[in-house]
Write a structure and sequence with these properties.
alpha/beta, Rossmann fold, 2 domains, 7-stranded parallel beta sheet, 6-stranded parallel beta sheet, 16 helices, 40% helix
Length: 380
C-alpha cells in the first residue's frame, strides 16, 4: 500500500498546534508498518529543511516541489482542480492531509483530512481580513464534503462538523491527539532552571500563559483578571508571564499590558524555543489558559504533565479534554478568573488535588495511540 501525506504545513518552520500535531504524528506513524510506502508532499517556494529522523526512513520518500502555494498552486487547485497531487507523487492509494489545504486528487485516490477546530466559523471577528479571505478561498466546508473520511481531534470538533457542515457522523473518526513524553516534572534542582530564568527574564514566582498572542486566546481578559487578582486579593508576589510569539491583531493586547497599573509585572517572553517550553512549565506556579475556543488545546495538557495546576475555560473542547483535572472558568467573567487564580495559589489542598489529577489524566493522551489509530483509519 502507498499512502501520500501532505506536509506543506511544515514549510514555514513554525510550531503552532497543527505543526505540533503533524510532527508528533509523523515521528510515530511512519515507522509503524515498514511494508507501507509513504510519499510526503512537500511543496512551497520557500521552505525549511526537514531535519528529522523519520525523513530518512527506508519506506519514506519526500517529494519536494517549489511552486508558490498561494499564488500558483492554490488557484490552480481551486479553479481547475489541478494538478492532481497523487499523480505528482507517482501514484498513491490514499492521500492524508493533516489540515484542510487545497489538495486535488484523482477519483480513484481516497482522501482523508484532519480537522482541528472550526474556530474561524464561530469567531471570524478574531481574524484579520486576510485570514478571513483565505478561509473563504479555501472553503473548509467544501473540503470536508469532498473528503472520503475525516479525523476530528476532539468530540467537540466532530460535533461541530456534524452541526455546522451537515456531515454524517459515521464519516468522522474521533482520534485524540497526544502529549509529548518530553513534558514531565523536573526536580527543583534542575541545572537548566537558572539559565532559562535568565534567558526569558522569568521572576521567582509567576502565573504562566503559553501560546500565540492573538484575540482568540482571550489575553485581554487574562490581563484584566490579573489586575483584579492583584487589586482585590492583595497578592503581589506572583507576576504574569505571557509566553509565545506575537500573532495577528496583537497590538491591543500589548497596549493593554503596557497601560496596566501592573505593567512592570506583566512579562512577554517572545518566541520560546520548543526545547525550552518544558522548563517554563516547570518553573510556573500556575498555568492559566482562558481561550475562547479550542479544538483540542495542547498547552493545558502539557502543563499538567509538568506538574503544574491548570485553570482553563469551560468552553468548546475543554470540558472533554481536561476533564476534572483543571479548574474551569467562564472566559468572559474576569472576576471568576481572578478568583480561581487566588484559590489555586492560596489553597494547598486544591493545588495538590489539581496536580495529582492532572498527572493521572494526562495518561489518556498518547501520540503512540494516536498514530496507531490514525494508521488503522487510513488503511481501512
Amino acid at each position: 500500500m502507498v499512502i501520500g501525506i501532505d506536509i506543506r504545513v511544515l514549510a514555514r518552520g513554525t510550531r503552532t498546534g497543527i505543526e505540533e500535531y503533524t510532527l508528533n504524528l509523523l515521528s510515530r506513524l511512519l515507522s509503524l508498518d515498514k511494508s507501507i510506502k509513504f510519499k510526503l508532499f512537500y511543496n512551497a517556494f520557500n521552505k525549511v529543511g526537514l531535519n528529522y529522523d523519520w525523513a530518512n526512513l527506508p519506506n519514506v520518500e519526500i517529494k519536494k516541489f517549489n511552486y508558490p502555494n498561494r499564488f500558483v498552486f492554490d488557484p490552480l487547485a481551486k479553479f481547475l482542480r489541478l494538478p492532481k497531487i497523487d499523480k505528482m507523487l507517482g501514484g498513491v492509494d490514499v492521500f492524508f492531509a493533516p489540515h484542510f489545504l487545497l489538495s486535488p486528487v484523482s477519483k480513484d485516490c481516497r482522501r482523508i483530512i484532519t480537522f482541528h477546530d472550526l474556530s474561524f466559523e464561530y469567531f471570524p471577528e478574531f481574524l484579520p481580513w486576510r485570514k478571513r479571505f483565505w478561509h473563504a478561498f479555501l472553503n473548509p466546508r467544501r473540503r470536508a464534503l469532498q473528503a472520503d473520511k475525516i479525523i476530528a481531534v476532539s468530540g467537540s470538533t466532530k460535533n461541530d462538523l456534524v452541526d455546522l457542515y451537515g456531515l454524517p457522523s459515521e464519516k468522522i473518526k474521533l482520534i485524540y491527539s497526544g502529549v509529548g513524553e518530553e513534558f514531565k516534572k523536573f526536580p527543583i534542582s534542575n541545572f537548566q532552571f537558572p539559565n532559562i530564568r535568565k534567558k526569558y527574564g522569568l521572576p521567582e514566582k509567576f502565573i504562566l500563559y503559553f501560546g500565540t498572542i492573538e484575540p482568540r486566546k482571550n489575553l485581554l481578559g487574562l490581563i484584566r483578571a490579573y489586575e483584579i487578582f492583584r487589586e482585590k486579593y492583595k497578592i503581589d508576589d506572583f507576576k504574569l508571564v505571557v509566553a509565545g510569539s506575537r500573532g495577528w491583531l496583537d497590538k491591543e493586547i500589548i497596549s493593554a499590558a503596557n497601560n496596566s497599573k501592573y505593567h512592570q509585572d506583566i512579562i512577554f517572553t517572545g518566541f520560546v524555543a520548543p526545547s525550552d517550553k518544558i522548563y517554563l512549565y516547570n518553573l510556573a506556579s500556575l498555568f492559566v489558559y482562558p481561550s475562547f475556543f479550542e479544538g483540542f488545546g495542547f498547552p493545558p495538557l502539557e502543563a499538567m504533565s509538568c506538574g503544574v495546576p491548570v485553570i482553563c475555560s469551560y468552553t468548546s473542547s475543554f470540558p472533554e479534554v481536561v476533564g476534572e483535572a483543571a479548574l474551569m472558568v467562564d472566559p468572559y467573567n474576569f472576576e471568576e478568573i481572578a478568583w480561581a487564580m487566588k484559590e489555586v495559589l492560596t489553597d494547598q489542598n486544591l493545588r495538590d488535588d489539581l496536580i495529582s489529577k492532572g498527572i493521572e489524566h494526562i495518561k489518556k493522551f498518547s501520540w503512540d495511540r494516536c498514530a496507531r489509530e490514525t494508521l488503522e483509519f487510513l488503511i481501512s
